[in-house]
């Protein structure tokens, strides 16, 4: 009985330290989004993001000569489980919000300067992650005894369009689908869970886009296409104690140039972004996170500043786990 009680307490402590790590959004998944966790976890992650940039809200279309302010409240639901002994995770996200934009926009092939606004939903997604190397599917008690190790997971995400009105010059949604393929890697720099954890996360992905066959920006264009976008996201985080952690980000993007009826918009994305983060475990099932990211280097006068505030409510039913 004492062994079961000790295992139970250790599992609770382990989950408290690790289940604060689900921060997903199109501007970057954020630190600790893809750390391994026990199977059987349910979590909900409401966030607030304020973006000041010349990119559309989804973060992968550059609009020259524009200043776009976005306030969105993406909410992600996450569940972990096991497939043939390997860790697996599913995500789903909805993304309500609003934007205002000023600058030069094209309408009927004429450049016009005005202030625009839109509200509704930005693009959301469903996603699946599966363990390839390392990444065993462990229950909470097994996970509490498991030494940190390198993990490599396969990752797929489908982005669906948010709110879109072709009569408007700018929208929260993109009126197209996005297919994202990649891997997630986590590298520990600590030997066991009793130490203050230090993690390096690396996530290279590529996004492929369907065409927008009902462009909103010009009545003369029949189709807007976009080239694939390569993204590599990196996060280094460190636990200062059992409740407080800090982190630094680097995120590189290349590609994503759009064209209208085959005519290039000359808006390729080639940017390096970075930021700082801090997270705190308020109580075992509730954690908070705040981060600031900006573009450090970029072509085509790309600009983006992002403030992100996030909460994670996580739950796992320890009583249903077989401790034998």
TrEMBL record:
<dbReference type="InterPro" id="IPR025737">
    <property type="entry name" value="FApF"/>
</dbReference>
<dbReference type="Pfam" id="PF13557">
    <property type="entry name" value="Phenol_MetA_deg"/>
</dbReference>
<protein>
    <submittedName>
        <fullName>Uncharacterized protein</fullName>
    </submittedName>
</protein>
């Amino acid at each position: 009985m004492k062994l079961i009680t000790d295992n139970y307490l250790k599992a609770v402590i382990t989950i408290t330290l690790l289940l604060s790590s689900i921060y997903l959004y199109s501007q970057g998944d954020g630190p600790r989004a893809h750390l391994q966790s026990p199977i059987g976890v349910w979590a909900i992650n409401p966030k607030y993001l304020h973006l000041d940039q010349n990119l559309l809200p989804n973060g992968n279309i550059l609009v020259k000569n524009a200043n776009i302010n976005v306030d969105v409240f993406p909410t992600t639901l996450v569940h972990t489980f096991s497939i043939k002994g390997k860790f697996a995770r599913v995500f789903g996200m909805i993304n309500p919000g609003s934007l205002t934009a000023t600058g030069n926009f094209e309408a009927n092939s004429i450049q016009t300067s005005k202030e625009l606004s839109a509200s509704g939903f930005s693009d959301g997604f469903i996603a699946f992650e599966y363990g390839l190397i390392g990444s065993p599917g462990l229950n909470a008690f097994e996970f509490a005894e498991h030494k940190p190790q390198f993990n490599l997971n396969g990752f797929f995400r489908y982005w669906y369009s948010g709110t879109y009105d072709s009569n408007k010059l700018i929208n929260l949604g993109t009126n197209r689908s996005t297919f994202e393929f990649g891997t997630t890697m986590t590298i520990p720099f600590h030997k066991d869970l009793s130490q203050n954890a230090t993690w390096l996360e690396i996530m290279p992905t590529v996004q492929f886009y369907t065409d927008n066959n009902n462009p909103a920006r010009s009545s003369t264009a029949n189709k807007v296409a976009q080239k694939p976008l390569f993204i590599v996201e990196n996060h280094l985080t460190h636990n200062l104690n059992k409740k407080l952690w800090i982190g630094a980000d680097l995120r590189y993007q290349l590609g994503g140039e759009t064209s209208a009826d085959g005519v290039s918009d000359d808006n390729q994305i080639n940017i390096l972004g970075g930021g700082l983060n801090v997270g705190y475990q308020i109580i075992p099932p509730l954690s908070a996170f705040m981060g600031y990211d900006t573009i450090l280097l970029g072509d085509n006068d790309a600009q983006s500043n992002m403030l992100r505030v996030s909460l994670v409510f996580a739950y796992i039913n320890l009583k249903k786990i077989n401790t034998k």
